[in-house]
Amino acid sequence: MHDSQRDRLSIELLDPPQDMQEVESQEPRFISTLVETNGRYDGLIVHSPHEYETILYLNQMGVFNFVDDGSIQGCAVLKLSDGRKRSMSLWVEFITASGYLSARKIRSRFQTLVGQAVEKPQFSSMEGDAWAMNLTGAENVLLGVLIQLVSCLQCRRCAHYFLPQLDLLRGKPHHLLDQSSKLAWNLVRQLMLNARALENL
């Protein structure tokens, strides 16, 4: 199996450390490298909110030899030690007919285990928390837009984004602008003071 091969799961992981612990408990041959230090995890590279990278060690690898097949410079493949029968290996389901350890088969098994871990009830219940976090982000964006709108309505001028010289509120009755400003400000207050405001709006 080549060390240079990196594969990303298409499954959205809500809690990578817990997911990896669950995988390790289901399949002791996979060892997670995540170590918690001062509230953060070493060995975890986060690419985006839904994508991360970690190194996974394969346990009990003593029956294999490293073989440089020359396919990728600086990398080696794992092959059963001479004299070992394929059926006697702990990794029998991942070994090809020629005795090599198959990266594709291991990757497939790992992805299946992660998928099962995410579907477990304790992990599925976290989806509500993830939704709440997404709503918090939406609230902040909405607040920013509404506050900007209040400012424009009170100044009775709203410049076009691409054509700043064009006033979108030009010619509108002042009493309607004031009334709209008050309505927008009420929305801002509700969003700021009521944590569940988006559910009621």
Automatic annotation (TrEMBL):
All copies of domain Mab-21-like nucleotidyltransferase, residue ranges: 40-158
Protein name, entry field: DUF262 domain-containing protein
Pfam (any one): Mab-21
PANTHER family, alphabetized: CELL FATE DETERMINING PROTEIN MAB21-RELATED, PROTEIN MAB-21-RELATED
Source species: Heterorhabditis bacteriophora (Entomopathogenic nematode worm)
Domain of life: Eukaryota
InterPro entries: Mab-21-like_nuc_Trfase
Gene3D superfamilies: 3.30.460.90
